[in-house]
Write a structure and sequence with these properties.
Keywords: Cytoplasm
CATH topology: Rossmann fold
InterPro entries: AB_hydrolase_fold, Maspardin
Protein name: Maspardin
Subcellular location: Cytoplasm
Shape: globular
Family: Belongs to the AB hydrolase superfamily.
Structural class: alpha/beta
Strand order of the largest sheet: 1-2-4-3-5-6-7-8-9-10
Largest sheet: 10 strands, mixed
């Protein structure tokens, strides 16, 4: 690859790649499709956090979550699927990956398409639950919001250059801060690494007619994470997501663009920790350590806090 982004040359990314191996796991009977994962944290944890990328992303786009949360004892798995061309293939493949890794249940942090697939997986496995909770980032509940909905069946015919140009329209670096610009450069670099079948299959899943039935997930702990600045999704799509899950907690970031897990990783990691705290001390804990901060000695000690908006309980502040 001729171009290298600043993030891919950063000490954090180089440390991530040198310390955590990329694993390729074949779970399909024909042996031709391999999930690519980075698995960090204690393997004794049977209910880890799995991160699922957007259309243009690879597993390593979550390197800041893998490194940051692992330091808190959280087992984090960043997973990238092989080319799956329909919903059933993807669901079956992800189910076999969970079985292969001998996981009981999983918490899923899904970005864009990753968030949509996470919802669909939770919906279709509800009778034999495999998902403990969801954190949804810049995602949607209905694929009809995308302009290529009518032509999705033809993506497999298009060359990779055309498919990449379809996605590049969302990657504008105008009037953004340095960290957001760096996140866009990194994602462009990841996009360039994808081959035709990987891109075409993801776009097919992203744009084929499909929708979530959110009432089937009403009992599941859900956090919706999104940004208040410009992103690829319209405000109407975000409002539809809020209405679909009135019981969900909303974790807002003032800015971050389309890829806040790269551009605002500290805030994203903090919101993920707060979401996972509710499972402390249970069989669904994602960490071998307690995620609840212990009070410091002394009367003048100050603890960091983060604000949430809970749609039922109004404004909630969690320290």
């Amino acid at each position: 690859m001729s171009y290298m982004s600043d993030l891919s040359q950063s000490n954090e990314y180089l440390s991530f790649r040198s310390s955590i191996p990329l694993r390729k796991i074949v779970v399909d009977s024909d042996g031709s499709k391999a999930w690519r994962i980075f698995d960090s944290g204690p393997k004794s944890v049977r209910c880890p956090l799995i991160c699922l990328p957007p259309v243009s992303g690879t597993a390593d786009v979550f390197f800041m979550q893998v490194m940051g949360l692992a330091s808190r004892g959280v087992r984090v798995i960043a997973a990238e699927p092989p080319p799956y061309w329909n919903m059933k293939e993807w669901i079956d493949g992800f189910k076999r990956l969970i079985d292969y890794l001998e996981l009981d249940r999983v918490h899923i942090y899904g970005a864009s398409l990753g968030g949509f697939m996470a919802q669909k997986f939770a919906e279709l496995t509800r009778n034999c639950p495999r998902v403990a909770s969801l954190v949804l980032c810049n995602t949607f509940t209905d694929t009809s919001v995308f302009e290529y909905n009518d032509s999705s069946a033809l993506f497999w015919l298009l060359p990779s250059l055309v498919l990449k140009r379809m996605l590049m329209g969302n990657f504008t670096t105008d009037k953004v801060d340095k960290r957001i610009a760096e996140s866009i450069d990194f994602m462009v670099e990841r996009l360039e690494s994808l081959n035709q079948s990987e891109l075409a299959s993801r776009l097919t899943l992203n744009c084929s007619p499909c929708y979530i039935q959110p009432h089937l997930l009403n009992d599941m702990p859900i956090t919706i994470m999104d940004v208040w600045d410009e992103s690829a999704l319209s405000s109407r799509v975000r409002e539809d997501l809020y209405k679909s899950y009135p019981q969900a907690k909303l974790a807002h970031l003032k800015s971050g663009g389309n890829f806040p897990y790269l551009s605002r990783s500290d805030e994203v990691n903090l919101h993920l920790l707060i979401h996972l705290r509710q499972f402390d001390g249970t069989e669904l804990s994602s960490s071998y350590l307690s995620l609840v901060p212990q009070p410091k000695s002394g009367n003048n000690s100050e603890q960091a806090s983060v604000s949430y908006f809970n749609q039922r309980d109004k404004f909630v502040k969690i320290s």
